[in-house]
Give the backbone structure.
Amino acid sequence: METVFDSADLPVDDRVGAWVETTALALVTTKFKSLDPTTFGARLQAMQLGPTQVTSMAYGPLVSQRTPALIRQSDPEQYQLALIRTGCQGIEQARSSALLEPGDLVFYDSSRPFVAAVESGPAGRSESVLVQFPKRLLPLPHADRLLATPLSGTHGVGHLLARFMTTLADEPERFTPQDATRLGGIALDLATATLAHHLDGETIAPSRSPGDVLFLRITSFIDQHLHLRELGPSTVAAAHQISLRYLHRIFQQHGASVGAYIRHRRLDRCRHDLAEPSLRHLTIHAIANRWGFAQPSDFTRAFRSATGMTPSQYRAATRAAGTPVVR
């Protein structure tokens, strides 16, 4: 895990400004209140696990706010699931509010305004660990119903997730850069399982519409057939015996398009393979081809648009030991 920010390394007058810049880059842009430069202290460490990131933080009392204006300026479209380790924290989002204590998990959305407040823990700081990932990777249509709701990190599936997160934060030296992509998949699976567990306990869970169930079936079908070049809206619709118009309507209801979803999933698989040491013998063209990209130029253009790097630059960066690729 890389130390991205430590206030102890900076002059007192520079700490608050540096913290604001660091959290904007590593997490999301927020406004901070009640930060006294003479007493403020914080630390932030991050570990990139493919498209997923795990962040460990310690900070003093503060109030942060993500406003509609900040969202319009920049939105990474990420979900964040945070584990409170010490201190007392509160958050308000989507007309819900939660007062959180050590052992609690809380789920929030970068695309919606929120206000969060932190009280110091026993040592003068509060500590938390959070996992964040692109919203499009979470296959739970009703997940937003859990925003700003306390979730247990001490029992059941939530405890498994919490143990996983704290192990990554406390023992980063046990994991190699080559472990990153595999651990990212585990983090996403555990986060999904935790949220699904709580959704199953809601009275709304049985009322999922046929379209919601079909959406999950379709996205599963797409993930299993990404290698087929002919995979597209028409083939997906035909495989599920629905009209092309109805297929597009289902995806629109979930804030996506069929073509964009297929492209995102193919690029995710390509990113995984480019970072996988055991696949270094494969050329970039071979990796692109195995996930349905017929034209190298189309793949390079799509990959650069999604990551800000060419495939060759991405592969080289992931080979550099201890250098996480953050995008």
The longest helix spans residues 180-200. The radius of gyration is 21 Å. The mean pLDDT is 85.
